[in-house]
Amino acid sequence: MDARRAEALPVRYAGLDDIVKRVPVSVVWEITLACDLACSHCGSRAGRRRRDELSTAEALDLVGQIAELGARDVGLIGGEAYLRKDWLEIVAAIRAAGMRCDLQTGGRNLSEARVAAAAAAGLCGVGISIDGIGATHDKVRGVPGSYELALAALRRVRAHGLSSAVNSQINAYTLPQLREMMDVIIDAGATNWQLAITTAMGNAADHPEMLLQPWQMLEVMPLLAELAVEGRERGLFLQPASNVGYFGPHESTIRNVLDPEIFFHGCNAGDTVMGIEADGTIKGCPGLGADYAGGNVRERRLKDIWENSAPIAFNRRRTVEDLWGFCRTCYYAETCMAGCTWTSHALMGRAGNNPMCHHRALEMDARGLRERLVKVRDAPGRSFDNGEFEIVVEPVPPAASTRVPDRIAVNG
Amino acid sequence: MAETGRIPVPLRLCRGCRRFVNLDGREDCVFCGADLAAAEAEHEANLAEMRRAADALREALAGLR
Ligand code: SF4
Ligand SMILES: [Zn+2]
After folding, report:
1. Which of A89, A92, B7, B41, CA to CA, is 20 to 30 A from A348?
2. In testing the pocket of ligand 1, which one of A341, A359, A370 has its CB within 8 Å of the most ligand atoms?
3. What is the mean pLDDT of each run of 10 residues along chain B (65 residues)?
4. ipTM reported for the complex, 2 dp
């Protein structure tokens, strides 16, 4: 990689060397489950603290263990990370250990005093969740007035010179408002916009009406490509999460970081991404549920869990034979491995078959078909739990077809 | 040696339809039928032309100053 490009890439960008050495470049750490919002899509069903969250001493010790593994970027999430009394001590320790530290927040109570103190502690950047305009955001986030509070927090973050980003959910409520949201976000001065598709986990599993249907990827992806190009011209970089994709004619436009040949190369969980729960449970990705818990730092060293725990290794050990359904015979199977593990597990009850995919929707559409998800089992109501959905394959209703007549279908 | 992470499987961008294709020895794009090498050459030629035009414009603007 040339030096200029290496300099321009974010520290959380994982290169081949990181993958080979399995460096957890990006660590996403839920430091508390306490929360001041009540989001209808919250995967962890945050609200009250976990009963057994790490103590300050345990958290500070964990910072050292994270640094030992070579991590470069620690993102603090919750719940609301700032509701933990010692959160600034944790920020300062992460910075002192030489790592970047960002906060991901709903911003409801990210007061002037909190932002000033965070900047003084060395916090590098803040990502604020904005999920729709005005009343839509308030509905998704479960608190009237939270939209204005989030925007005010974003302005405060900028005023303190911290890098400012926005995180947004793409779902049935926000999809029609994404364009307008981009204008608001640019006006508020954010430079990065991370977009993720709402995953059917936790509270979202109880709200199937807010989830996108697979065929809506035919609308989502061209729109994201348009927004990516326009955003870049206006100083806003779109960053699709790894559950947004895959392939199709817009892959290069939505995913490239200064290089049109960058494409989705599969889930990074457990290879270059690590998730930590507030009680010290270690996972390959923050969104994954109990099946993917690799161990707890109260019982084992982080390095031991990271290197030796089987539930962390699912990704690197996955083969095409582990895929099923449409993904099993997909043209991109070997590269993609069914995309986001979190998304497919939350919907289908196990990984390896992911209906939320643009390539798949295009292939279906070329045959005059589309997939519809129907919920067949409720989630039990625990943090990071999931229900189960069935895929119904049906003919595309005549008015909804986006078929291009001469396309070649390559999937069996 | 310790287990490595999953090494990405490389793909190639078809300059005809902007879809990624597998490196499976095929010379044409499985999606749009374009000759991959020819489409790449055309893309490179277009890029070079754009660069030349941009340089010419820059020079012309410098001459105006
Ligand atoms: S169908 Fe499955 S394997 Fe193929 S690109 Fe989509 S998510 Fe990946
Ligand atoms: Zn092509």
Report:
1. B7
2. A359
3. 83 94 93 94 90 89 81
4. 0.85
A396 φ, ψ (degrees, to nearest 5): -70, 125
Amino acid at A236: L
Q: Within 13 Å and on the Cβ side, how many CA atoms surround A386?
A: 22
Q: Across the interface, do A22 and B18 touch by the CB < 8 Å criterion?
A: no
The response to whether residue A360 sits with its C-beta less than 6 Å from ligand 1 reads yes
Closest CA to A311 of A337, A277, A282, A279: A282
Q: How far is CA A324 from CA A156, A364, A407, in A?
A: 47, 16, 25
Q: What is the distance in A from the centroid of ligand 1 to the CA of A289?
A: 22
pLDDT per residue over A327-370, tens digit each?
A: 999 999 999 999 999 999 999 999 999 999 999 999 999 999 99
Residue B19: closest CA among chain A residues belongs to which residue? A249
Return d(Cα A229, Cα A238) in angstroms, integer: 9
- Structural contact between residues A279 and A53, judged by C-beta atoms closer than 8 angstroms: yes
**Rounded Cα gap, residues A136 and A175, in angstroms:** 11
pLDDT for A234-285, tens place per residue? 999 999 999 999 999 999 999 876 677 788 888 889 999 999 999 999 999 9
Beta bridge partners of A101: A74
| Residue ranges covered by each domain of chain B | 11-62
The verdict on a CB contact (< 8 Å) between B9 and A334 is yes
> What atom of ligand 1 comes closest to residue A330's alpha carbon?
4
**Which residue's CA is the closest to the ligand 1 atom numbered 7?**
A338
Strands A273-276 and A281-283, sheet pairing? antiparallel
Instruction: Determine if ligand 1 sits within 6 Å of the CB of residue A100.
Output: no
Token code pair at residue A64: 């050292």
Nearest in space to A214 (alpha carbons), one of A37, A362, A66: A362
- For the entire predicted model, the pTM comes to 0.91
> Would you put residue A10 in left (φ > 0), alpha (ψ -120 to 50) or beta?
beta
Spell out which chain B residues touch chain A, with contact meaning CB-CB distance below 8 angstroms.
2-9, 11, 13, 17-20, 22, 30-33
For residue B13, give both structure tokens.
Answer: 């961008």
Dihedral, CA of residue A177, residue A182, residue A185 and residue A189, to nearest 10: -170
Nearest CA in chain A to B29: A408
